[in-house]
Amino acid sequence: MDVLMTIRVALQALARSKMRAALTVLGIVIGVWAVILLVSICQSAGNKVKSEVLSLSGTNVIYVWNNWRSRDGERKRSGTGLIASDAEALAEECPAVLAASPIVYHSGQAVAGDLNCHIDRILGVNTQYLTVRNWQLGRGGFFTQGDIHSAAKVCVIGQTIADNLFPAADPVGQSLRIKGIPFEIVGVLETREANIFGEEQDSIVLMPASTLHKRLFGWPEEWVASLMVSARSADRMEDATGEIKALLRERHRIVRGMADDFEVRNTSEFVSAFSTITTVMTILLGSIAGVSLIVGGIGIMNIMLVSVTERTREIGIRMAVGARPRDILRQFLVEAIMLSTLGGLLGVALGIAFTFGLTYAINSIYTFTKWPVIISVNSIVISLLFAGSVGLFFGFYPARKASKMDPIEALRYE
Q: Is 52:195 a contact under the CB 8 Å cutoff?
């Protein structure tokens, strides 16, 4: 019996029991659907988190924090701690470093005329901050090195602050007050979308770190909370990290054997950690969903055994007119594989449809984020191959049982 004839007979056999065939493939459909949906959603989540990390930080960014330690129940700096001039030294003396900025954190209320709004982040930075963050100006300019040296009362604001305090006017050249102190607005940042947590990125005010120290905090020191450093390229991240550590140990007079008074981390480490978590979750959820394929395979075996019993007389007649055992084996194997493959194709279609639907629902509910649609081609191919293999594996025993029948006994079967 040729292959085309085998397939035609298999289709005729399945068509005779449409409801039973549909119920048989249901387990395969659910298994493949779950694998496609879960793997695609996990990969979408991983890509979204990766893009958000880069959006929050910028590209090729390295963070340097003070190394805090507990002393007498209080968190205190270890060693001298980071200072604003460390950023300038890193940018000037480290060949692998493109730019560096100190970061001083604050938050508070801003007032302009009769309007006021809360500012989530008031950051003290230097002139290289926008380069590090890969952020552009929408209007106006940025403060200068002279403004930093003189602790000038100037600032650059985010678009949310501009909309809230100056809804009908250009904010550049005007002033806002923080803690009663007026600050001239020299520029407005280009707008950015909210991050994955729904936090507003445009609710921000940038000013010289020296201004934040002297005007708002009243600190004579130039201590800073952290440094943000941008490597010249992704390939030079490790070089930049090594140069940063070496220079800061030298500047902070840390001798061999002493612990660093700073910690260095980069965005690639964050992205790598998230990628690892996403991969593990994808494999775990995909494996759990794959159990449904095994259950579906058991269903196929059960139905094929029933089919063999029902068609015993047919098997005897075919053997009597010249069908060989291998023809009978191939016939029932083809039926099992067709059932599982059909279930796999339906599962793929449902998985793709549900992925688009769930992504649309997420983006509709959480309007602050744009969840990407990612259909994993690998998961589709693997699911279809696995579904076909399930049909082959679980269909082999019933097919072998049919091929081993005695033609005489089969013909006597009622």
A: yes
- Does the reported pTM lie above 0.70? no
Amino acid at 44: S
Nearest-angstrom CA–CA distance, 10 and 111: 78
* Residue 154 near residue 142 (C-beta atoms within 8 A): no
150 is written with which tokens?
């003189």
Which residues, 6+ apart, have CB-to-CB distance to 242 below 8 Å? Answer: none
Q: Each residue of 290-316: pLDDT tens digit?
A: 777 787 888 888 888 877 777 778 778
Q: Alpha-carbon distance 124 to 225, whole Å?
A: 10
- Could you give the angle at the alpha carbon of 161 between the alpha carbons of 198 and 88, nearest 5°? 90
Per residue in 80-129, pLDDT tens? Answer: 688 888 999 999 999 999 999 999 988 889 999 889 999 988 999 999 99
> DSSP class of residue 234?
G
414 CB neighbour count, 10 Å cutoff:
4
Closest CA to 307 of 333, 287, 282: 333
Q: What pairing do the DSSP bridges indicate for beta strands 97-112 and 115-125?
A: antiparallel
Contact at 8 Å (CB) between 178 and 157?
A: no
* CA nearest neighbour of 97 among 262, 189, 227, 256: 227
Q: What residues of the chain score a pLDDT lower than 50?
A: 70-75, 78
For 96, other C-beta atoms within 10 Å of its C-beta total 21
Token readout for 219 is: 């600190």
Q: State how far the alpha carbon of 53 is from the alpha carbons of 108, 147, 154, in Å.
A: 25, 31, 29
- Tell me the two tokens of residue 55: 């959006």
Cβ count within 10 A of residue 79: 18
At 223, which amino acid appears?
W
Domain segments of the chain as ranges:
3-54+288-412, 68-260
CB atoms within 10 A of CB 384: 17
